[in-house]
Design a protein that fits this description.
The protein has 280 residues and is of the alpha/beta class. It contains ten helices and ten strands. An eight-stranded mixed sheet has the order 3-2-1-4-7-5-8-10, with helices on both faces. A two-stranded parallel ribbon has the order 6-9. α4 (95-109) crosses α7 (186-193). It holds the Pfam family Glycos_transf_2.
Length: 280
């Protein structure tokens, strides 16, 4: 069943109460009771440390976890001048539907910048907030992808398929097109949410490559931000990589067909600026 909105009634009401904000930080989650508190802690500290003068909202978009993920998120105390919403998104179960709810919230709050981080991160620090948001708020970039130092067997789909195809097709050497941590201008969130893709694999694991490819094909000002080391909860490859592989690659080829005219005109490839952490 398709839905006109990914936001439930109580979430919409909270957004109406808040009215507007400068920054929205989205945390999509699903069965992350062990790590969600640490991620929220680093986000709230980072916003307080680097953007205390900006009105900030943290939106936790849960996929219907039956463990204590939402309870932990609700009970975690953030800074008193920040807002936090803990919600269950509506729509197809998947990461993309969580992002859809974040895009809707960003549009309704009229934010200047939106940032998204995974909920299973163990290596996130408060400075990740600065590394992701600074290019948007202070350097006029419109879309920020992450760069990490990762374990050699991590990022299998990225290293073997997604990076190479994105570089070959669109001519940009974006190291982590499906990295999981992004920042983008509020206007881009408004564009994303209006697209008719929420009954496709974009509503699942196809979301990251769809976002990155649309940023490229819309000729946005793109950079990478070095976040240092990425460590997150280990996943069972047999359980998670199969559906992820199918959804990412299918989305990649659908986008290739849609943007044939653009990539046929591309010659060679070029680097994109890398900001953020200067040393690993």
């Amino acid at each position: 069943m398709g839905y006109d909105t990914a936001l439930r009634g109580y979430t919409s009401k909270r957004i109406e109460e808040i009215e507007s904000a400068d920054i929205l930080v989205g945390i999509p989650c699903y069965y992350n009771e062990r790590t969600i508190a640490h991620v929220i802690q680093m986000v709230t500290h980072g916003l307080a440390k680097h953007y205390k003068d900006q009105r900030s909202v943290i939106l936790i978009a849960d996929g219907g976890s039956t463990d204590d993920t939402r309870e932990v998120a609700k009970e975690f105390e953030i800074k008193p001048w920040q807002e936090k919403i803990t919600s269950i998104y509506r729509g197809h179960p998947g990461k993309g539907s969580a992002f859809r709810s974040l895009f809707e919230a960003a549009k309704r709050l009229k934010v200047k910048a939106c940032m998204v981080v995974d909920s299973d991160l163990r290596s996130i620090t408060s400075d990740w907030v600065k590394y992701l948001l600074e290019p948007i708020l202070e350097k006029d970039y419109q879309f920020v992808c992450p760069v990490y130092s990762r374990y050699k067997y991590d990022g299998t789909i990225t290293n073997n398929i997604v990076y190479n195809l994105t570089r070959a097709l669109y001519g940009l050497r974006i190291r982590q097109p499906i990295g999981g941590e992004f920042a983008f201008v509020g206007d881009l969130a408004a564009y994303y949410v209006e697209q008719d893709v929420w009954d496709t694999d974009v509503a699942r694991y196809g979301i990251d490559i769809w976002m990155t490819t649309n940023a490229i094909t819309n000729n946005l000002k793109i950079c990478q931000s070095n976040l240092g080391v990425k460590i997150h909860d280990a996943k069972d490859p047999a359980e998670s990589l199969g559906p992820m592989f199918r959804q990412v690659v299918h989305t990649l080829f659908v986008l290739m067909e849609q943007h044939e005219a653009e990539w046929k005109a591309v010659k060679g490839s070029r680097t994109v600026p890398t900001l953020g952490l200067q040393k690993f």
